[in-house]
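hey
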């Protein structure tokens, strides 16, 4: 199935004119300050909330925050939890915040925690995949990244001077992927759009160069107590990729510039919640993200000395 897009000429990549037309159509629909920053302000004093940068877009100013968990010890391994790389993927942001508020204190006794709950606040407010320059942060976690959302959080993590043992990046796959974001991407690049089958349920994307299927299975087992796991389509695939096991596919994450590809963590995974499922509520989606994190950390803690 192909879907056209109202901006641009089919077969011709966007110029600055079309990019400006796209940007002019975007509107603020919710508040980063109210939904995210206010929750960070309410964290207990033993959480180290750090501003690691600021995005300046037109008249909007977006401070960027990362949090170090309580009891930080330089000689301990660290878990990195990232959310809101794609701002429209709401449960990634709210799941990271829920973990911070309700669960992080318990895990910080045995390992260091780094949490960046909303990497793309402009996209969060406008419910977008891209930043204002029509760039996808989750294809630009690369050296000399042109995307400030990606570059700034990478620099913050590097400054912690700690070994990242596990990295969980919280995402969603939504119906708007086919309705808006994939058609927009094809129009921007002047190529033909081909929509994918949207999986009904939760699944994971692992790193094909660092496969840890038992780790990912522990995450899936934890999430299955909250919401359903996606089944493969009739070609044995999820979003066009062969299923390694139920609910799991692999990508070459560093090659693709994905968020989990920028760390050298042994254990890494991207979560994918499906909020448009008739079998899941927004609260279940948030809880599924928290369950993914706790399932991952429980697996790791069983293997630490």
């Amino acid at each position: 199935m192909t879907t056209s897009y109202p901006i641009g000429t089919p077969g011709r990549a966007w110029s600055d004119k079309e990019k400006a037309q796209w940007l002019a159509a975007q509107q603020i629909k919710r508040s980063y300050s109210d939904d995210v920053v206010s929750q960070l302000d309410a964290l207990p004093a033993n959480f180290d909330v750090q501003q690691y940068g600021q995005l300046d877009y037109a008249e909007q100013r977006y401070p960027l925050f990362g949090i170090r968990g309580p009891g930080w010890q330089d000689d301990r391994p660290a878990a990195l939890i990232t959310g809101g790389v794609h701002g429209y993927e709401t449960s990634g942001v709210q799941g990271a915040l829920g973990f911070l508020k309700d669960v992080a204190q318990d895990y910080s006794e045995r390992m260091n925690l780094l949490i960046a709950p909303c990497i793309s606040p402009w996209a969060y407010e406008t419910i977008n995949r891209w930043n204002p320059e029509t760039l996808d942060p989750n294809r630009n976690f690369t050296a000399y990244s042109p995307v400030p959302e990606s570059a700034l959080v990478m620099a913050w993590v590097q400054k912690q001077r700690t070994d990242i043992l596990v990295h969980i990046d919280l995402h969603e796959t939504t119906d708007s992927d086919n309705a808006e974001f994939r058609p927009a991407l094809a129009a921007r690049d002047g190529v033909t759009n081909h929509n994918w089958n949207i999986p009904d349920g939760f699944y994971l994307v692992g790193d094909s160069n660092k496969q840890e299927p038992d780790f990912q299975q522990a995450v899936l087992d934890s999430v299955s107590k909250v919401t359903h796991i996606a089944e493969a389509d009739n070609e044995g695939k999820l979003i066009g990729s062969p299923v390694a096991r139920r609910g799991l596919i692999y990508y070459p994450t560093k090659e693709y510039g994905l968020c989990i590809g920028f760390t050298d963590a042994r254990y890494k995974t991207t979560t994918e919640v499906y909020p448009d499922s008739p079998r899941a509520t927004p609260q279940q989606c948030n809880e599924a993200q928290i369950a993914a994190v706790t399932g991952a950390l429980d697996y790791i803690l069983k293997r630490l000395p």
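The beta strands are 48-57, 60-68, 78-83, 112-116, 164-172, 203-207, 237-238, 241-242, 248-251, 267-273. The chain has ten helices and ten strands.
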